[in-house]
């Protein structure tokens, strides 16, 4: 039998500021790790900061359930008056976001700095 | 030479798994392991993994409705040229043409409904049989 390929565990690391939180999402968001992603982001959304930036530079995989978690976080964040931005997705994740056209809902920035620096707007 | 249909091909492997994510994950890893052995590109491996994740999730959640007494049959053949996977659930089936386009503006902010679209975007062939209970996925190895 072939060797089993390894899957990177999902991990969220948060860096908090007064008016923003940067959540670095590492690893693979798959059918068996999306619950962890949902719980992690829900916890951060409950802090109700004006801006949540999801740093996707070390996210190597995400399934449609995982995309759904990002969208749910966006809705919940907006409901609390905040905004969600995606930053520095890797090429495969960026392709996924392009194919699904999710950039129309979740603004995508090339870096965390760019996501933090863009003015907050009602359309985000 | 005519191709042998996968369901009649003795060289194809078959796994029958319960409707649970842990068992599904083991099956997925087994197929991905074979793909790795045949030197498919990273892009192709990502594509097959994504399509498998979507197909298995659909089978468990929408097909078998998380019923632990129902099973999923996964039949697959991985060769240096192509990977073909047939995945069959024990649900009531569905009409794949009735699934709304998730890229339309009115559907973009919905958290679900992207699975079939992603399978079609990433695989070379996606077809449904048995009134929607079965999906066939094909990925060519372009190196």
Description:
- The complex is a heterodimer of chains A (124) and B (143).
- With 124 residues, chain A is α/β, with parallel strands linked by helices.
- Chain A has one domain: Transcription Regulator spoIIAA, CATH 3.30.750.
- Chain A is built from four helices and six strands; from the N terminus they run ββαββαβαβα.
- In chain A, strands 1, 2, 3, 4, 5 and 6 form a six-stranded mixed sheet that branches.
- In chain A, helix 1 packs parallel to helix 2.
- The radius of gyration of chain A is 14 Å and the shape is globular.
- Chain B has 143 residues and is an alpha+beta fold.
- In chain B, helix 1 runs antiparallel to helix 2.
- Chain B has a single domain, classed as 2-Layer Sandwich (Heat Shock Protein 90), CATH 3.30.565.10.
- A five-stranded antiparallel sheet of chain B has the order 1-2-3-5-4, covered by helices on one side.
- The longest helix of chain B is centred in the middle third of the chain and has 22 residues.
- In chain B, strand 4 and strand 5 form a beta hairpin.
- Chain B is 33% helix and 23% strand.
- Chains A and B meet through helix 2 and helix 3 of A and helix 1, helix 2 and helix 3 of B.
């Amino acid at each position: 039998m072939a060797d089993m390929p390894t899957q990177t565990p999902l991990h969220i690391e948060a860096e908090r500021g007064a008016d923003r939180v940067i959540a670095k999402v590492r690893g693979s968001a798959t059918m068996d790790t999306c619950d962890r992603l949902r719980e992690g982001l829900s916890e951060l959304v409950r802090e109700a900061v004006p801006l949540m930036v999801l740093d996707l530079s070390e996210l190597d995989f995400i399934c449609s359930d995982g995309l759904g978690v990002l969208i749910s976080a966006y809705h919940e964040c907006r409901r609390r008056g905040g905004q969600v931005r995606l930053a520095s997705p890797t090429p495969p994740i960026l392709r996924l976001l392009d194919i699904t056209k999710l950039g129309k809902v979740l603004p995508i920035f090339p870096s965390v700095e760019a996501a933090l620096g863009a003015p907050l707007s009602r359309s985000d | 030479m005519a191709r042998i249909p996968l369901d009649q091909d003795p060289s194809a492997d078959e796994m029958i798994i319960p409707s649970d994510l842990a068992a599904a994950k083991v099956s997925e890893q087994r197929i991905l392991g074979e793909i790795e052995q045949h030197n498919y590109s990273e892009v192709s491996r990502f594509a097959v993994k994504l399509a498998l994740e979507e197909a298995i999730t659909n089978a468990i959640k929408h097909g078998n409705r998380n019923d632990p007494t129902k099973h999923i049959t996964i039949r697959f053949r991985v060769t240096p040229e192509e990977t073909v996977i047939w995945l069959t659930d024990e649900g009531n089936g569905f009409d794949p043409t009735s699934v709304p386009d998730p890229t339309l503006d009115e559907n973009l902010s919905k958290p679900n409904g992207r699975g079939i679209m992603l399978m079609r975007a990433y695989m070379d062939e996606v077809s449904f049989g048995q009134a929607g209970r079965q999906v066939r996925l094909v990925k060519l190895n372009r190196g």
